[in-house]
């Protein structure tokens, strides 16, 4: 059997950046593609970054039990389609989920053998700088993400391992060590 790795932590902490580098170094890792009701950002592609769904399409998937986990985050829904994950794990693959904290908690219940990594920012000030620096969200979306971050950081210790994303390469190395050791 393969293994399930969950990468979680507040929005803007650098999960997506770390993930991209991790996949470049380890193309054998299978990255789960989530479904969301959020609108695509410029350059985001349906079926590659997310499956961009309407609220009713998302609700149908919930009703059909097609999500391993799903959560509401900053006014939109996000969920992990179950089928692809189960297929990849059955094929001995390392499967990676990049999801927010509520969803990661659900995975802990339904898939306790998953290994859960929480990415921390060097400080809350730096987190805000990164979210703003990305320049892709409205002020309202930024405020929602920052409010959420406070509660999320408070539960970091629930997860198997905590990694501070200060120096990007140090954080990447720590993630690789956690996955492959
Ligand atoms: N629970 C859950 N969270 C997800 C899923 N996909 C993405 N997320 C999380 O939803 C949050 C918002 O994602 P997004 O709108 O892409 O914004 P960003 O992370 O700030 O770039 C992030 O914390 C993601 O990790 C999913 O399938 N399930
Ligand atoms: N170690 C780091 N040092 C400085 N900036 C970083 C670091 N990691 C990520 N960033 C920057 O922070 C912003 C948010 O990163 P992103 O990967 O989009 O976060 P997330 O996926 O967790 O929301 C991006 O502009 C990214 O370039």
Automatic annotation (TrEMBL):
Major localisation: cytoplasm
Catalysed reactions, semicolon-separated: GMP + ATP = GDP + ADP
Subcellular compartments: Cytoplasm
A GO cellular component entry from the record: cytosol
Catalytic activity, EC: 2.7.4.8
Swiss-Prot/TrEMBL keywords: ATP-binding, Cytoplasm, Kinase, Nucleotide-binding, Transferase
Role: Essential for recycling GMP and indirectly, cGMP.
Family from the record: Belongs to the guanylate kinase family.
Name under which the protein is recorded: Guanylate kinase
Source species: Planktothricoides raciborskii GIHE-MW2
Gene encoding the protein: gmk
